[in-house]
Amino acid sequence: MILYRDGYTPPIALIFFACACFAKQVHVSWDVGYVSVNRVNQNTFNAIGVNGRLPIPPVYATVGDTLVLDVYNSLNVTTTIHAHGISQNGTSYMDGPAMVTQCGIPPGGSFTYRFNLMQAGTYWLHGHDRHQNADGLRTPLVIYDRHNPYDYDDEHMFVFEDWYTNSFEYQLNRTLDITQPPPPRSNGFGLINGFNGNDTAPISFEPGKTYRIRLINMSTNQWFQFALPGHRMFIIETDGEYTERTEADGIELSPAQRYSVLVTAHDSDRFNYQYKVTMNTDLNAPVPGSVIPVYHGLVEYHRDSPLRAANEFAQKITFVNDIAINSLKMEPPLPVDRSISVALGNSLFSTGQRLFHFDGIVYSPPKVPSLFTALTMGNQAMDPRVYGPQTHAIVLNHLEVVEFTVHNPTSQAHPIHFHGRSFQVYGFGPADNDPLANTTIAPVIYNNVAPLRRDIVVIPGHHHARIRFRADNPGVWLMHCHIDLHSAMGMVLTIVEAPDVLQRRNNIPEDVVQLCQSQNIPTEGNAAGNWGLDMTGLPTPPTLA
Ligand SMILES: [Cu+2]
Q: Positions of the region Disordered (predicted)?
């Protein structure tokens, strides 16, 4: 068992001495490259790390700081970085998704991300080109608050990842190749704080102290559950948004979700305990006959105290539904100006492949990054058609309150992420156009008091979810499933928010334009690089079979 992992040691000085005195610049330099790792004793594919390391050290900052992230690309393909959950208000061009808000950084090229961190909470940085996050390009981004609404004495962090024996590219290509049998299915291996879940490190508790425990699921595919048997825990944060203090037996996180919980240690150090981490393979089409991986680690009060093992306590965990949690601000549901309904799916297409989609549209990137189309098409930028048939663009008006109802008529849960914002999770109910959906399996439930906010909502199979937000962030933002195989196979759409306001601001930095021009990628015109609605040159999209 490894006792010290420098990559995940919280910087105590930052926690206790971060004062309201000075906003600072947090400068991080990343050389993104291939690293040879053997994280679960049987895997040696070329993973993607930073500065020759994997796991990548987390980034810590304080609200008001500016993050300056220099990226040099040592890979032999393009790369980009996305700050997950950071709203990028005014800096849409720093959001990261390749061919949406920027061009990929070419091999041997570099680019500097620079943006203000105006939100306290638990976030993460990850690759947003070619799903390089799945091969390791991901790490926590913790932003400390200047005035914590909740008191606590210290922090611990648990970062969960799934890890596979092949690269994401291999898995995707094999899945898409209908001339070959599908690749062998695997639940993967659970990693905790960058290491094999079976080697979980102990955490220490001092009697009487209260701990904030940050939980981050950076997985591509798997849900994780966390419990501290023998202790009470209270949710205070969902995806960077404070919540009312809400008691929970345990926490379940979909890919890309984050939570913070408060746990107060027992008054005496007479016993040690265990934390319990379960990789919940049941939610994502379990591999038949597979065993659910469960990992235990020590909660150490005193080196010599006897252990009260996790299995001495009640095993049944009831997870708290999003609807049952109120936001700390106690903001009531926003009054809706406009309702938009979309349906996700997994269907057979004209290519003979089973693909993922919203409303029968399989996303593929445009020839001009959508943000440049929004900036250069004049009045036509308000017409969703100029973004091309394969980006599934939805244009929002500045400051309107939008309710999205996202229907999931599949049998599988999908974690749906919006770039550029958090949103209110207003309610759930049965999916439309789904013969298996009804109010018994998917009761209609709303939070009419003060819905929590978050940036990833899990829509269980045969359900719909209703989410609300005010369109107060002009920019181009993806909405997509955060299961990487699903988004890689089309479950992505594009939200173009207030292109008229974006054009008036006209603040795109020259180096963002240069990044495209140095690779001969057009920076004006519609999705095909033409004017008007002429889409000549774009590939023919697959259609529902
Ligand atoms: Cu999905």
A: 526-545
* Integer Cα distance of 112 and 395 in angstroms: 29
Ligand 1 centroid from CA 172, angstroms: 14
For residue 272, how far is its CA from the centre of ligand 1 (angstroms)? 39
Measured CA angle at 19 (ends 16, 22), to 5 deg: 140
**Average per-residue pLDDT in the chain?**
93
- Residues lining ion ligand 1 (Cβ < 5 A) are 414, 481, 483, 486
CA distances (Å), origin 314, targets 250, 282, 291: 12, 21, 21
CA dihedral 244, 247, 248, 254 (to 10 degrees): 0
Determine contact, residues 48/381, Cβ cutoff 8 Å: no
How would you write 241-310 as a 3-class SS string? EEEEEEEECCEEECCCCEEEEEEECCCCCCCEEEEEEEEEHHHCCCCCCCCCCEEEEEEECCCCCCECCH
Read off the pLDDT of residues 227-269 as tens digits, 9 standing for 90 and up: 999 999 999 999 999 999 999 999 999 999 999 999 999 999 9
Ligand 1 centroid–CA 459 distance in Å is 9
The rounded Å distance from CA 56 to ligand 1 centre is 26
